[in-house]
Amino acid sequence: MTENPPTASPYNGGQPPYPPRPPYGPPAPFAPPPPPKKKGMSTGKIVLLSILGVCVLCLGSSVLLAATGGGGDDNPNDVVAADDGTSQSASAAPHSGKTKAAAPAKKTISPTPTKPKAKPKVTFKVSGSTPSGVDITYGSDSDNRQGGDSAPWSATLNRDDSGDTQWYSITAQLQGGGDITCTILVDGKAIASGHASGGYNICQAQIIQGWTGTWKKV
Question: N or C end of the chain: which has fewer CB within 10 A?
Answer without folding.
Answer: N
